[in-house]
UniProtKB/TrEMBL annotation:
Plays a role as an inducible effector molecule that mediates Fas resistance produced by surface Ig engagement in B cells. It is found in: Cytoplasm. InterPro entries: FAIM1, FAIM1_dom_sf. Keywords: Apoptosis, Cytoplasm. It comes from Pomatostomus ruficeps. GO terms for biological process: apoptotic process; negative regulation of extrinsic apoptotic signaling pathway via death domain receptors. PANTHER family: FAS APOPTOTIC INHIBITORY MOLECULE 1, FAS APOPTOTIC INHIBITORY MOLECULE FAIM. Belongs to the FAIM1 family. Its main location: cytoplasm. It holds the Pfam family FAIM1. This is Fas apoptotic inhibitory molecule 1. One of its GO terms (cellular component) is cytoplasm.
């Protein structure tokens, strides 16, 4: 693999199927543009005469739409911004905090990253969409699934406050797991 001499930007993006690394090379003399996702080359363009523009690609198992915008900021300086699903990275992260819950835990020496997508109630574990069983209980709902022979349950209970909405709690082997901040 050639050395990345024209590397101008690196981003880490947390999606339901994991945290992905996006790297961008921009050769302002050669006009080269290369996009890597998790170390794998996704786009390579040589001899681009237009040095500004946009490169679009997908990220992860969910094929999430992404784009890198290349803008000139005077002289020979450029600014690179990443968009995820049509939103700036900052907007995407803020929106994701509202629409997902993430827990990180260690079971039997292995790290697991569990993500709940609140809108669909899909549960992901280390990049795999989990088989789940939902049930209604007295105070809300429970979503059951298994990770490495451990019984897991995400309890959804009303906070009783309109602004807070529903509180989701992950319970593994009858132990509450604190939510992670990514």
């Amino acid at each position: 693999l050639e050395k990345m001499t024209d590397l101008v930007a690196v981003w880490e993006v947390a999606l339901s199927d994991g945290v992905h690394k996006i790297e961008f090379e921009h050769g302002t003399t050669s006009g080269k543009r290369v996009v890597y996702v998790d170390g794998k080359e996704e786009i390579r363009r040589e001899w681009m005469f237009k040095l500004v523009g946009k490169e679009t690609f997908t990220v992860g198992a969910t094929k999430t739409k992404a784009a890198i915008n290349i803008d000139a900021v005077g002289g020979f300086a450029y600014e690179y911004t990443l968009e995820i699903n049509g939103k700036s990275l900052k907007q995407y992260i803020e929106n994701r905090l509202k629409t997902t819950n993430t827990w990180i835990l260690n079971l039997g020496g292995t790290d697991y990253r569990i993500v709940l997508e609140k809108d669909t109630m899909d549960v992901w574990c280390n990049g795999q969409k989990m088989e789940t069983a939902g049930e209604f209980v007295d105070d809300g709902t429970e979503t059951h699934f298994t990770v490495a022979d451990h019984n897991c349950c995400i309890k959804a209970v009303s906070s009783g406050k309109r602004k807070e909405g529903i509180i989701h709690t992950l319970i593994v082997d009858n132990r509450e797991i604190p939510e992670a901040v990514e």
